[in-house]
Amino acid sequence: MSALASRERGTPVQRHCIDADPESVERGLVSLVLTIVELLRQLMERQALRRVDDGTLTDDQIEKIGWTLMSLEEKMAELRDHFGLEPEDLNLDLGPLGPLLPYE
Amino acid sequence: MSSRHEEEPALVPTAVTSPRQSHQPAIHTERIALVDLLDRVLAGGVVVSGEVTLAIADVDMVRVSLRALVTSASALIRAGDDEEGPGR
Amino acid sequence: MEPNGTWVYAITERVDLTPLAQIRGVGGRPVRTVAAAGLTAVAEDVDLAEFGEEALRRNLEDLDWLETTARAHHRVIDAVAQQGPPVPMRLATVYSGDARIAAMLTQREADFRSALRRISGRMEWGVKAYADRQPEASDDSAVTAGASRPGGGAGAAYLQRRRNQLTAQKNARRDTLASAEMIHAELARYAAETRVHTPQAPQLTGIKAPMILNAAYLLDGTRGEDFAAAVAALADQHPGLRLELTGPWPPYSFAGTGEEGGLT
Fold it and tell me: In angstroms, what separates the C-alpha of C91 from chain B's closest C-alpha?
């Protein structure tokens, strides 16, 4: 007998719900937000390195930008720790496009 | 049939069982990893201009498995909306 | 509950249903056959209330239903494969009656015969390769904690460090991709045909290490052991990678009859 035979005909099949308790909902949203922030941080970092390579920044600017990015990375680490997230948790799978952030 | 289920931080190659002899009953199917199985039955196999499934055949079946398996933020947001209606 | 649809599992030339009598399929009814054009469709009567188009759209997104159905679909196909590899149908190929199935068999006879010839006596083996994550000094930022404001050179030093890390990562990625290509080329020598699939995301596999190879190999029935030995040997040669071998599978990845251009 089919495992589904006990379901009444016509009863909509329950959508499989990932754990929907408020805590995990919040965690899911937090990891989504932090993923976006992490994306921006990595983009800014690469942009900064390109400008350093181009030679379009003064030493003072390099120092300031580097310091800002470093502080940002520290802040991200704090936020991850606070929410119990690993770096790998901050990523999105875009299907055929692969992952949003590169694996490190 | 052999397949790994859980990740273990191993640097050694996965042991493989010797190929199953023909005429042996398929007794190990329940131990096949779901991800391997879905990959094959959803994205493999022949697609024929079916009849009942004509429309579904055009759907990217791999996306179906992704939706079902991957924790998606939108599902969590919907779930958090206290308005979990039956199906769509 | 009158069944009003027919689920099709696979196409073959002929099949002995006796060993399949104990196999439970997707709907719990007996596995049966539909014959036409010298071919046999392995099938089962199902209710369109559960397996019709609307119901399928819902059910396919229910993981429990999907898993149960996928395993049952495979169970039947695998049992048929014991008598010789069939052409597997993709999950959820449903018809409203035998006449339609017979018509389909007649219409696609040449394609199915061609596919059956290609897979005759052969089964599919799958190989996945993962790049084991390199232990990285990703917490370098902690080294400079305490610098309260820019000016001490810490910022510039940070950028330099990040540049070095990004370069190292890029090189590592290039190396692992080269390894994946090499491994595939080596394994392909054993196979009549190969298919390279998209690597799967960690969220899908539950494995954190990135997947760098996801390929299927169509092997003659006698080559399975040699192939397994080759995979083991390659794993030894690449200590930084993890290789997974699964099989033998019915030839899901090689069922393409050419009409849809084959699989990725």
Answer: 5
